[in-house]
Structures are given as C-alpha cells and as structure tokens.
Amino acid sequence: MRVTNFFQDIIRPITRLAGPMVLWFSIGTFAAAQKESTVHNFKRGTDGAFPNASLISDSAGNLYGTTTQGGDNANCKDGKTVFGCGTVYELTPPGNGVTHWTETILYAFQGEPTDGTGPAAPLVFDSAGNLYGTTENGGASNKGTIFELSPPAESGGAWTESVLYSFTAEAPTTGLVLDSEGNLYGESNLPEVYELSPPAASGGAWTFTSVRKFTSQDGGLDPLGGLTVDKSGNLYGTSATGGNDFKAGCPVNTCGLVFELEKSASGAWEEHVLYNFTGDNGDGASPQGGVIFNGGSLYGTTINGGNGSGAGVVFELSPVTGGWAETTLYEFSTTAGHSPEAGVVFDHAGNLYSTLFNGLDGGGEVFELSPPAEQGSPWTFTDLFDSNCGDDGCNMATGLLLNKVGVLYGTTQDGGTGKFGVVFSVTP
C-alpha cells in the first residue's frame, strides 16, 4: 500500500487511483440485465430535456432532479426551436390507484438576467424541505446562479424560486452540500471551493466566500466531482488534474488527487492532499466524481488509469498512522464497460454501485462491486444493466440513488423514446 504523509502534504498557498499497493482485482461476473425499467421519458416542451444530474429523494420516496433544457421558455432557444432554460422536476411513485410514476415540473427557469439557465447538477434538501441547486448560466452576469426552491404552504401549490447568488467571474461546476449550520458549499471553474452562508435575519442577503482557490498543480487544478462534508464540517473532494506525480499518460502530465479542506477554530480553511494518483502500476488517474465515506474510509472512481488500458478504477482511501493508504478495488478494461465518471453509493451489506459512461452496449452501464468474504481477496464485479442507446436511454455520466428498499435510480443524458433522456430504475 502507498501511504501519503498527511502532515507533509499540507498545501502551500496556490488553482466528473497507485505505485506499490495491495491490488484487489477480479475479472468478475457479467450478469444479464436485472429488472431495469424506465421511470420517465423526457419530452421537451413544457417537460424537461437532457438530465445531467443524479437524483435525490424525500422520506416518501419521491425523486427530485434537474434538466439542463426544457421548460418551454423562449428566452432559451436554438434558432427558431424553443428548448427552454431547464427545469426542476419531481417524480412521485405509483400508488393510490396510479400505476405509473407521475412527473411534476416544480420550476421552469426563465433565463438571464434575473434567473438562472441550464441546471446541470444535483439538488440538496435542508431540514425545512427547501431545495438548493446551481445553474451553469444565467443570472446577472450570465455566469450561473445558486437558487433556492421553497415548497408551497398547501399541497398542490406552486414552489417559490429565489436566486440566492449570481456569479460574476466564475461559474459553478458542481452541486451543493449543506453543513449542520445551514452553510452551502460548492465548486466553481475559477477554480475554487466556495461557501454561501445564510443571513442572520430572514430576507437578508446570503454571504458568498471563496474558501479555497486552486492555483498550483500541487494542490489540484480541476475540481469537478462535488464535495462531501463530515460531522466536523470538513470538506472532501477530488481534482481531475494536478498533484505532484508527473506521468506522461495523464492530462497535463498530472493524474489528479483527493483533498480535504479543514476548518480551524478561527474559521480559516487549510487544504491537505490525502492522495496523489499516479496512473501506473494499477493506480487510477483523473477522478471526475467525488468521494464518500463508508466505515471511516473514502471511496470513489477515476475515469483513467488502471490495468494498462487506462479504463479507470474504483478506489478506497483508508486513514492510517501518518496519512492515508490507497487501495485499488477494481480496474476496468476497454474490452468491457469502462470510464466511470461518477462517484459510488453503498448498501447496508457493503456492496457499492455506480455507473460507467461506456457500457457493453454503447450507452452506459450500472454495476455492482461486492466485498470479499476475506480481507485482501478480490471484490466481485457484476454488470447489472447495459443501456443500448434506444428507448432505455443513452450516456450515463451521473451517479446513482439507492432507496431504502434497495432499488437504484439514475438518469441518462439523452436517449429514450423522445431522445431527450430518461430516469431509470434497476433492482439488483
């Protein structure tokens, strides 16, 4: 295992994984499609179009997401064809005599200069049921926005949208995470990690603060995957490029890294590089998804690196004395599904799930990795579903949502009966 020294990797002020290590690799089993179904086909017009974000759910099992286009607003159009500025939608599961999922458009964006355009990232709920998200464009400077959607006072009423912040120099590249104090955190293409803090009094202005600007390759150059926040309010993320291992096969000769931003008692933020990817000897390169905690370790994917074909890996980072140890759990091959762009989710049994942009049938793949019975043995790979770029959707670039009964939900960027993307479910 490669161990990075946590204290030596404190970063000097600076801009969608390894050498010697234990390699857990399995050819795995490729299974037939597992109970896949299409939850919703997007149709454009007043409906959404081209979902490019993973889903979230509420306690009742309703799904929420965004589409980059659709909503039928003429402020956003391609020539004479109205595509719309994007939507926030809700999908309600069957019940009470209804045999299919029911879609409700909670909000259709209106475009610049007062509203956002093109929401392409997942949403997040607060404890009061408000939704928060980002748009890639629109707002006062057409650089994107951070918005809030508040639920109606009575069931069936309209949700209320508020633009909390309009970007001026940078544009948001990811969705948001929420800490225990109600602060929102995200990433922009400056590149930076930023914080948006709520006002002290209701109706006041939110406060935008740049938490960390990435300005040198040692600390990362391209944060794309979104953030994870721990119970202490520390932030964890990935950078697709940067790091201090220089390899010709990696973008700009650097393979990316995993970082932590630690908040001190004084409120200052300090960056620690937890791991630098190398892209050789089975290690990954270019993480485009974020990381999540499971059992005290961090897990994620890289789109490149691995077994010589550069098809990507699934990795684990475990805390050890003096640093973090990285283990490659699985290496993908260009002869099968490959190129994971999203992070992973876990079930209660310790199985992890994610998607591949390139599946066996060309349209993306949902896979499962099951842990071994004995420590150090290979994890078992199972192909759960392959999209064929037909009615079942095409191009999986986002992660999965696992509900409380073990059903996986995801989106495809396009494909489906209308060719504008789908929401699908897979039962492992």
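Next protein, fold it too.
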Amino acid sequence: MKYIRIISRILLGLVFIFSGFVKGIDPMGSVIKFSEYFELWHLTWLSSFSLILSITLSVAEFLIGVSLLIGLRMRVTAWATLLFMSFFFVLTLYIAIKNPVTDCGCFGDAFIITNWQTFYKNIVLIALAIFIFYSRNLYKPYSGMLAEWGLVVFFAAVGSGISVYCYNHLPIMDFRPYNIGTHIQSKMVMPPDVQADQYESTLIYEKNGVTKEFTINNFPDSTWKWKETKSKLVKKGYTPPIHGFSITTKADEDITTAVLKDTSYSFVFVAQNASKVLPKQWLEILKYYHFAQEHGQKFYVLTSTPPSTADQIKNNHKLAFDFCFTDETALKTMIRANPGLVLLKDGIVIGMWHYNDFPKPDYFKGNILSTVITDYSKSIEWKRIFILSLGFMVVLVVLMGMMGMKRR
C-alpha cells in the first residue's frame, strides 16, 4: 500500500502540474474558454472576471500538482485535490451530456480531447484523489510546517509569475495552430483519406396548425409548409487545425488566397476588438503602415469589429488605412494580443509580437528573415533554459524531501 500511495500521489501530481502549466502559459486561451461558457450559460456579467479566474485556476492546478508531487501539507492538499476533482467531475459530466462546446479546454491547446474523453479521464483522477484523501494521515511530512508553507508560497508565486508574464507578452510555449513556422494554407486543407463531421438533418413542416418532423429521406407532400431545418452532429470527423479563417475587405471582397500566396512580406495587425485598442497603439500601427508603403510591403489590419464601428474608429484616430474583416474566433486563436502583429511571407508565419513587444519599424530594414529568425532562436533558447530550470528545481526539492524522510 505504501508504494500505491506514492504512485497515486506522483501520477495525480504530474497531471495537475501539466494541466496548470499549459493553462498558465496561455492565460488568454482560458479567458476565451471562460467567456464561451459564460455566454452559453447566460452569465455574461461574469466575463469581466475571466482573466482572474484563468490565472487562479492555472495557479491552483499547478500548486496542487507540485504539492502532491513533493508531498507538501498532504492533509490540506488531499482536501484541496478532492474538492477540486469533485467539482470538475460533476462539471465535465454535465458538459459531456449537454455538449455546449466541443473542447472543455482542460489541457489548453496542448492536448485536445473530446468532452466524453475528458469525463472518462476524470473518473480515473477522482479515484486517485479519493484514495489519497483516505490515506492522507499516512503520508509523512516533507519538512517542518514553516518550510512547507514557504515552498507553497514560492511555487504559487512561480505559477502566478508565469501567467502574468505570458498575458503581458505571448505564451512561452505555443501550441496554437498559427505558431511560428506554420504554413497556414496547409493547415486549412482537408486530407482526402479522412471523414468530415457527419450531421443528421431534421425538417420541420406545418399543416393545419400541426407541426411534424421529417427526414431528408421522408419528405411530406406539397400540402405541408416548411418551417425550419435542424442539424445534429451524429459523428465527429476530422477538423483541419485551421478552419473558419478568411479575410474580406470593406467591399466584401475575399482576399484570403491573395494574402496567403503573397511572396512579399505582409505586416498583419490583429485587432480582434478594435474598440479596445488604445490611441498610442494606433499611432504605432500607423507608423508601420507608412513604413510598409515606403518599402513596398503589404499591410493589413484584421478585426471582427462591425464595419460601421471600424469606420468610426478610423475617423476618430485619423487612420490612413482600411480595416479587413475576419472571424472573431480565428483572430483570438491567431494571436493572444489585442492588438498583435503577425509577419507573413508566402502564407508562412515568420514572426509574431504582442503589443508590449512591438519592435520599431526600422527593425524590419535589411534582411528581414535573418533578423527575425535570429531573434526567435534566442528567445527559444532562454525559454528552454527557464523551463529546464523550473523542472530541475522541482526534482531537486523532491530529492531533498525524500532524503529528509529517510532520515526521519
């Protein structure tokens, strides 16, 4: 039983750490998911708390995971784990049955599973949580109470710091389909050897005040009047990583293919909600517009803001460019910033920047590709060092705790 307790604690701890970490590095992803749920449940007034809930959830999962893995304050941790899993066990069962969204977002964009797979996964996890809870008094203390609470505070600060940094910049690990190096059109293609989603259509007809349902294989005669058609997903098929992405102009001209096949560099600014872009940010974007005009490069601003509002923003800020329009979900997925900058060439994502990290336009003089790739390689290097250091720190603390327990 001793080894079962240890294995249960480690397995559940690793799952919680992974779940908390992938949410923590992409807090805006959780904000989007929370907003979806609040809208579906008619609780839109809670959307203003989405960011706080996002960071709180990721830190809570990360902290519970670390505490389980190391063995910190196991009595408190066992209670927290059981309460956490009980809540999400019920929630994921409801989501699996009602299917309000296709992905609950439990592992962010790193690992997408269906709602029923999420629930089945939680059956295993809550079983482990119950076992740990009933064994909570048998776990030996990791260290003294003060030292253990000190580690809890330390790892809570680490988790919070990661989330706040990634919110104010971009995720330090990018699992989204638009990540750097992506050829967008390739991820929009439906492979020939896979099946698409299969839907079942129900036709609603009326006759003499009576409504009746029919299938496409059982049409009524001409005396019945059609009222509506309902479609139900009966079998989930393959969905391309990038779907629903298009770019249209104010004149409703689709320029998606032209943008993605352009061999020149394209500065694509994403302002999903243009109304929330600050005046100083519009000034920065305007500088890029003039830079692109001077150097023969392409420039676009994509938004999901209604055209009438976009026109008003253009007039208020005296912007020299027109807006292009793209689906809101596609823009939220494309980059976690409002506004954000995506550099495209031949439909390939060369680079992307949060508005807090916009380089000066002169940065793109000379050999653009070499400059961007060199800086991207440097950023990847320090991010790897950070993640490895964090992992080494956890392993070191675990080993120190194991040595301490042997001495006791």
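About the second fold: The mean pLDDT is 87.
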